[in-house]
Amino acid sequence: MKKFFLCFAAAALLLSACNSIAPKEELVINLQEKGAEVAPSMYGIFFEEINHAGDGGLYAELVKNRSFEELEMPEGYYAEGDVLHPKKVCNHMSGEVREGSFRWTTEPVPGWNLNTQETAHAEMKLTKENPKYPTAPNNLKVTIKDASTPVRLINGGYWGMNLVKEDSYLLRAILRTSADYKGKITALLLSEKDEVLASAAIEISGSGTWNDVHQMMRPAATDAKGKLALEFDGPGTVYVDYVSLFPEKTFRNRPNGLRNDVAEMLAGLQPAFVRWPGGCVVEGISLENRFEWKKTLGDPAARSGEYSTWGYRCSYGFGYYEMLQFCEDIGAKAMFVCNVGLGCQYRMGDASSENKIAYYLDDCMDAIEYAIGDVTTEWGAKRAEQGHPAPFPLQYVEIGNENWGDEYDKRFDIFYTAIKEKYPELTLISNHGLGGTGKIAKTDMIDPHWYVNPEFFFQNTKIFDNHPRGKYDVYVGEYACNANVGGGNLRAALSEAAFISGMERNGDLVKMTSYAPLLENRNDRSWAVNLIWLDTDQVLGRSSYYVQKMAAENRPTYNVKSNLTMSAPQQMEYNAGRFGFGSWNTQVEFSDVKVTRADGTAVPFDLAKSAEQKGTWNLKDGLLSQTSLETPTKYIVDGFSGNEFTLECKVRKTGGHEGFFIYFGLSEDNKKGFVYNVAGWNNQTTAIEGVAEGRTAGVVSDRVAQSLENDQWYDVKMVVTPLKSELYMDGKLIVSYSPETTPLQFFSSGYDEATGELIVKVVNAEAEAYPLRIKLEGVSKVEKTGKVISLSAASDMEENSFEEPMKISPQESEYNGFGESFDYSFPPFSYTILRLKAN
Length: 839
Description:
It catalyses: Hydrolysis of terminal non-reducing alpha-L-arabinofuranoside residues in alpha-L-arabinosides. By secondary structure, the chain is mostly beta strands. Among the domains are: about 1-35 and about 450-505 and about 540-565 and about 745-839, Golgi alpha-mannosidase II (Immunoglobulin-like), CATH 2.60.40; about 110-245, Galactose-binding domain-like (Jelly Rolls, Sandwich), CATH 2.60.120.260; about 580-735, Exo-inulinase, domain 1 (Jelly Rolls, Sandwich), CATH 2.60.120.560. The chain has a nine-stranded mixed beta sheet with strand order 50-49-52-47-46-30-1-48-51, with helices on one face. Strand 24 (about 450), helix 7 (about 455-460) and strand 25 (about 475-480) form a beta-alpha-beta unit. The chain is globular and about 95 Å long. The two termini are about 35 Å apart.
């Protein structure tokens, strides 16, 4: 307490000192000028089985590979060592058969091992002999040859089991013994060092029949890396079909429920909705391992599970029923994402045959009926049988996941029409982004995704300001700053807070958002940056988690107008650098390439000399061709570097689905610069993107509608000066951009009608305090005392960690200096929310 008081006092002194600095700008807020409403649905969460987010994460099961199904692989797949190869299928867009390789385990029985003095004393092997459930046919045959020292079958869970002293754990085991087994079977809870923390005898009646045993166990001590063992003290054969260990204390005490501390973290975000089951798992690597919701219903011991797109088997434990129940428990709406008969287009990209579309549509309609159908319907009755006769809060259906192209558009229209006709109250979402809605007839919402570096979010807070209204709303279903930010530092969080300010300001268009991915078990990071980290006994939020929480808890009813939304960027110069060509999922040719200086003289260079290549490139008789469908390709020309030149060439698209790239201003290592992305975003849009760490890092210019025809030559000219670049095609100016510094301060303001408070949100991503004068217009009274909630750190490179989980977390304090005009200095590297009573 003393340490906290001293820190608080120091912070108050710093704040007092900062407030004496002369304001840099004046933020004028007019409470009479009402802006867009901010929808109650604005902030939700997106769950996907990735990074062991469910199994070994949110789902409370402690036993890994409880049904012994882990080595089952999708139909047509095969393994070589630790690599899984998918079935060879035809990509429906390119016609190619792609090669793929994914994680596989070489463990003979994943998650399980036999502890014997000599390997000859006992053995185990998987079998499908006489399964208890045909849907989960594998069981483990344990043959004990010598039990002079008892044999233990041990499961260490997901990198350990968190066993808490005197808490209760429900063991469920389905076993049968052969007639030759005369010994006892004992369940043990063990410490990391194999000390017995609890034991319970398992009673088996008869031989050759399955026994479904339920037993409560209470450990005598706490161990975060505990284990479960079945101990056999006699020779013979035992078959084990299913072993589960569940904490009695799950979230809201639900059976087959959720890990309490993790679920509480999610509930702490006050999500308006939950999106499930993904993400790429919806489509699968190919259709053979897509997520199948019907297989997630019923007895957990009968659930088949499925090899997840992200490299391990999902048990289907956190299933459709459990997701819907969680939504009801936390007062959130549910969003179901259906498959339209397309495998992941970033992976194998197969498509079901035309006559199978109806199957996928029926599957989606059944999912809706299960959630909200009357108990007299087939699937509504199944929901009632499983303990929930009342409808669940399903409100949203996303039709497909990250699909695009003509085939998707055709299928979307089929699904949209059928669902709307039967369930007009549901909100239906397409996978389209801001580049256009392709050939579909109508959608309620679109779903753009962004995984970018901090500069993109800082530079694009106005991306929605001039987007057309009236045709659809926007759900930003996946977004995160995940490039060049470590595991997720404060700079990432501040850039997201800035981007959120733009989404709130455009609340008449953007109605829903969800950060992705949501969860990460620290032992299996498949995705570079995730919102919440967990271990067996600990869960922590990154600074981005607290940005999400602060935004949701301080959502205004509507925006009020202000004179500033961000600090003014300053003009800057392009760096001198290399140029080059490229494409995305497109085959393309470049010819007649020439470069001239500002005075018109030719620049000598050798097109055959490249500084970097990615893709399949060939140069012959001055024709540079790229023949692969990689994403992306690049051919960076060596021997020239400049920021004042004109590049001219002819370009022809010969196949694929987008346009072409022209890189310029690339650094010596080719990792930083700019690129004209021509007819990108599914052959619909042209814009300039930044390049960071060698990859495209987000749009910095205006977006222009544009598409390219196959086998048509285009005359292309790019004019670069230190202060501006321009792209011409067939003599017409398409897009231009003058480089600017990245703004580092962002402002948004809104009014909370329930509390009568003005809410001012300020991001300061600079290393210095930012003094600001705030002037309120259109008010009759402002109370002097209000509230300040601030998230900050000494450096924007800092991160939370398991050792310091609250290092970067919101600090709330009372402030007594509010008025119709007041000065406030915002700390370096901070996200601050002011709440003040204003009539």
